[in-house]
Predict the 3D structure of the following.
Amino acid sequence: MGMDVLGISPVSEQGRRFHNTVWWWRPLWQYCEEIAPDLIPADNSGHSNNGWGLDASGALALANRLLEAVASGETQKYEERYRAHLEALPLEPCKICDGTGHRAEPPNTGPGPLSCNACGGIGKRKNFATDYPFVVDNVREFTAFLRDCGGFNIY
Ligand SMILES: [Zn+2]
């Protein structure tokens, strides 16, 4: 599953489409919401694929906000805080083997005779939130799209 952000009136190839998987999109959009609450209303539906978006002036204003944040180093600091937060999250019991480290014969799940290939036999896995990465480069790519998209809709 992924998110396609489509330019309404693109002025370059870069402004036509921005794509992130849902795992990359959620933290990116959350960051946009945090730094631009004046541009993105709290009741926006940017985490859905329902076509929510900003018009040309809104997209440009968001691009400029992100550019400033990247240039000032704020985005880098956010990335570091975000990563530290993820690394501090507790491990979760493995769902494939019910946390036992030994699983049933595939395609069945649950405890069984086999060493669990999902968790390496440990019985625990990384917290699910670690599947949602955030890096400055992804913000830069989105900013390049925003500058040239002429407004956008999120699908
Ligand atoms: Zn397991």
